Structures are given as C-alpha cells and as structure tokens.
Amino acid sequence: MKTIFFFRNWSTARIVRLALGLVLVIYGLIAKDSTVVTFLGGFLMFQAVANLCCCGGGSCGVDTGRAERNVSEGQDTEAK
Questions:
Q1: Cα 80 from Cα 70, distance rounded (Å)
Q2: Model-level pTM greater than 0.85?
Q3: Helix (H, G, I), strand (E, B) or coil at 31
Q4: Per residue of the chain (80 residues), what is the pLDDT tens digit?
Q5: Any idea where the domains of the chain sit in the sequence?
Q6: Cβ atoms of 21 and 45 closer than 8 Å
Q7: Mapping DSSP to helix (H, G, I), strand (E, B) and coil, where does residue 16 land?
Q8: CB 45 within 8 A of CB 17
C-alpha cells in the first residue's frame, strides 16, 4: 500500500499531536463553551502540520548519539 505523500516521514509524536488536536477541536466545537480547548486543539494541529514543537529553536530534539566537546583540554572552566 502506498503512503500518502503528505504523511511521509511523520513521526509518532506528530501523529499523536494531530489526532489529539483534532479530538480537542471537535470537543471544543461540540461543547460550545470551551474556547480554550478549541484553541489548544488548533495549536496542536498547527504544530503537527507545520512540524514544529513548543521548544524554541529545536533545543529539545532527540539525541543523535554523537557527543560534541565544546571545552578545550587545557581550559579552566571553574568560576573564581
């Protein structure tokens, strides 16, 4: 079965955000008094479609297994 072009390379987190956002938007529209829930669902759906997360600058990404050293061997890092 061919995958739909739009859903190619989607992670589990994106699918969960889209599903949860859709459920919250539908619930918010049915309840009619839950504008906060509707906006939260819309925000989650936007994050899923745009592939964004709530962390700024992608700083909370998954570790790739490569360690990087920013400190030289000879530098003193203690505050005096």
A1: 20
A2: no
A3: helix
A4: 555 666 677 788 888 999 999 999 999 999 888 889 999 999 999 988 888 776 655 556 555 555 555 555 555 555 55
A5: 10-50
A6: yes
A7: helix
A8: yes
